[in-house]
Batch of 4 targets.
Target 1
Amino acid sequence: MKIFLSLALTMIIVAAGGAVFAVQQFKASGQNADPVTFEIEKGMGSRQIAHDLEQQGIISNKWIFLGSLKIKGASSTLKAGEYEIAAHASIKDIQDQLIAGRVVQRKFTIPEGLTSFEIVQILNETDGLGGEIKNIPLEGTLLPDTYHFTRNEPRADKIAQMVEAMNKTHQELWDKRAPDLPFSTWEEALTLASIVEKETGKASERKMIAGVFINRLRLGIPLQSDPTVIYALTKGQPKNEGKGPLGRRLLSKDLEIESAYNTYKNAGLPPAPIANPGRDAIEAVLHPENNEFLYFVADGTGGHAFAKTLEEHNRNVAEWRKLRKSGQ
């Protein structure tokens, strides 16, 4: 009996010591001196995950990792994805991160006013996404913004997210539009917004320029927007080689192109958007500035000079040409 009690006591002491050691190891600082990336692929079980963590030197003991998972009842809750493990992270810290699914958040930004072709180019060139976009979405269906993604997330999913974001913008803005606008559909609003987006990069000018185009639409005057001619020439696939979308200046002869998108030869709106406008440009055409301007031209400072009469506009154009010539 004494021998039995002695053995039992020894086992209890060993077990208690082992438990204390395990708890210490569970909470102890990890051995990786720098942050490391660790990836859990879909379908990986906890044993494989623990093995890989130990093999990569991220944790010191896979059995402590697995045992603590079992105690928590969390063996099947580790989420797939790409993780950045902090330097010296403990087994507990790592386990909490994997259970919570705190994966690396990558991102890409789509600037306002890009064509769908250009957006697809950005997506296909963004490292870390999966698949390839082969079909170009319709212009005006993608909302420019900054989008987050996880490693190997399908590019097609990001296109769907941009479409959903534009649809949500439609729901939020359309019914709140100003009354008596010279267009009646969301698609027409997007078309005008895309032109406004391409005409100015200054936020302070969007509603002014929207007001100019609204005035022209009401009077039946052609919009005479250069970006619409450029779209007719490029079919939405600009060169982007540092010399503008055409690789050269727009010429007077270009304004004669036979195209429904040529707003020099056709009054009213083009048949569809010429780019993907941002939310601010859409709001500008839904709530344009009430002004009397019918013309505008670049002023050499990144903005535009506005005019109510053709005579005044011609003077502004002459000034712009002098500025452009002096800059050559």
Target 2
Amino acid sequence: MRDKRYKEALLSTINKAEEGNRISRWFDVFIMTLIVLNVVAVIIETVEGIYLKYQFYFDVFEYFSVIIFTIEYFMRLWACTAKEKYAHPVWGRIRYIFSIEALIDLMAILPFYLPLFFDMDMRVIRLLRLFRLLRIFKLGRYSIAFIMIVKVIERRKEELMITLTLVLVLMILSSSLMYYIEHEVQPEAFTSIPATMWWSVATLTTVGYGDVYPVTPLGKVLAAFIAILGIGIFALPAGILAAGFESEISKREKNRSKNKRKE
């Protein structure tokens, strides 16, 4: 029982701070600052002149960050059994390891440890170092903005999936039609339906790079129709997300007003 109290106290400290918990708040600020600095460091490291000049400091900061994130990961792994859904000392922890938040925490440190245990090509090591950018997703545990984004996507996932399905169907139909219309005239540009999907994506998103475009009258008519349709289709997810954010913000405002009335 005492062990569970320790775990609950630890989780209340390392999870998003509740009102009045100053230690937890300091921990949140420290971890969020460390995550942001890590992302900045990964970006700046790509500037070869700066990285070669300050490589020692970049390496020291990376070691420090990995130590902190590793300690945090194992603290969460130890304390997770205080939650009811992870209560079993073995299977509960295994279940926690494969949860989204635990996988994000693991990906934050895994790129550092893999080259230590496995002989890897330098190109793979560089790619793994780039994966350190995934540490930004750790902000989702502490940032209100990240939490709100996740909630909106979860609550609107059915509408978003319908929209995505509609976009995929339209992309397949438009690229297939354009291939059969333009292939004989431009066999080097519209070589196959998969290759024509590049034109379909560029047209539906109204980007219009111009490297692949129809030259036949029928092809131009189809391209114009698809471009106009694309404006409406790609506006749907934006509208769904906007409605979701508006609903989420109004709920938060109602909860705040209720809490003020109680006080």
Target 3
Amino acid sequence: MIIKSISLTNFRNHDTYRLDCNKDTTLILGENGCGKTSVLEAICILTRGKSFRATDPDIIKRGKSFYRIELEYNNGETRIATYDNKTKTFICFNKKSRRLPIKARYPVVLFLPSDLNLVSGSPSRHRDYFDHIFSELNNEYNESLSKYEKALHQRNELLKTDQPSKDSLFSWNLLLARYGTILNKKRYELIELINQNLNSVYHSIAENNDIISLSYKTELKNISESEYLKALEQNLTKDLYLGHTSFGIHRDDFEFIFNGKIANGSASRGETRSLILALKFVEAKIFEEKLGKKPIILLDDVFSELDNPRRKCLIDNFKDNQVIITSVEEVTY
């Protein structure tokens, strides 16, 4: 057991709430809308540093002026997060900070019902999903992504003004080229890491000979920083017309390949669910190998979306992890 308890105050629809995790597997049972997912969200804030579904002003219970979360680990350590409509504060190791310190983070594998639609999702949905995984695995990726997104926002704002000068855009071009090439390289490395295990894990679930993999679609293959910068400058006329940056890693996509074809449209519903299960298992395996910690598994009402064999597979695969499950009905585990 890793998490001992978590307490919420003025969080979403909870005035106060406390969850005691007395076993390796904890079930949060309740009807839809009662706040089960909010408990998982609070855990993510104090393990990852941020929510997986909203900004802080949206989290405070209506009519209240603050929220507070306290998480206690089994070894007695605590993490506290507060937000007062202005400032978010974390208290870890008896110190206050505006962000959750890297050493205070703990790997989490979150499984949402919407993840089962990942195969058919949009490119932006794919990027968001894998950017999150890669950011947890690699702090350089996390920092580069944050700096890239800020530079991209500033450049796009300039492109919307009347005839911005090349000089005013150049500094943002430099940052996009610098961090874009870092992210591009890291994405290739991390996709390869996933593909080392994805197919074999899928076979253990589906018990067939289908071949699956994850493909990285990008315009930036083997591109250098200077080539990236040149491409941004060559696309300036187009970008001015569009009002946004048309070239870069923010346009990349990740596709699931099933027997040599794009899985979206060629894989059945059951095959797609097996593929996503395999991805989650690989995600947990990589976190443990790279970060040296068994991740906490958060399962948000996914059992209603899975048949019995896949439910059993999910439970069996995570039997050595701490698992916290939300459900509207009793779950056998």
Target 4
Amino acid sequence: MNWYLQNGKDSDVVISSRVRLARNLDKIPFKTRASKEDMQKVLNKIEEITPSLGYGLKFLKLKDIDDITKLTLIEKHVISPDFAIDKEEIGAILINEEENICIMINEEDHLRLQVFSSGMDLENLKNLIVEIDEKIDGLLDYAFSEQYGYLTACPTNVGTGMRASVMVHLPALTLTGNITKVLNVVNGFGMNIRGIYGEGTQSQGDIYQISNNQSLGITENEIIKNLKTITEKVIEQERLARKYLAKNQIELEDRVYRAYGTLAFSKKLTSEECRNLMSIIKLGTDLGIIKELNDSKVSKINLYTQVGNLQKYLGKNLDAYERDIKRSEVIKQIISE
């Protein structure tokens, strides 16, 4: 079972963890100043070393991946939306069967190494990505400065080049009106808190992405430790808000079961409706209110009701109206499993 269908540590609040490293190859201009020939050189070098890396990684050119598959990878947060719609088609990915490792080639930097896990798993992800990074470093020369560290296209990534992040589900803080206060505190501690697709995006279904905003003058271990500390505080606040909501049991159960009734018995649902309903339903499942669902079914519904993954799951292209009908059918099927 792939990581995005699993449940990990603290998965009632922390949906997933990711650690990313930005790297560039020495003596090749950064993408912002590179020619198409330069970018092709990067692709050739990475394709050449792929068999030596292991981990079951496969080299796939972006132009050879169909649009639906690209969309499924965006929805799983494995590739970025901007990377997927690159018109020059000079990108590629290295990805394994489990999809917990994905290296984007010629995104903003020559290489964006990424590792993923369900729940709170930052330490293990850091160890894995350092291992992969050292393998690549032994085969290729990185752009590196003794004074500044790893050199990157964006100044905010210079230094370690590390961006660690967690996706958190905070419905109770939203319902109790405390979400803004918590978001401000997180930002005040040198962290970014954004929508689920990163910078410039909105929260969807009460899901937020927390990540470090500093990579220069700080070690990889410090980045992980700081993010872990802040996330633990957010988990604590969300769980306290859930306890507060549970004091008014009838009101909470009514809200949860109204959402579940709409989800389970509607004939058609838009992806936005589904996402908003699932936020309350996941809360109800985590609190033991909804007995008809479990963590596995919630994860499946969250994944297979998204536009790309719904079509991939059913094996056919659908227009918006057809998707809304099929979405309800797939939900009923997952609930009855």
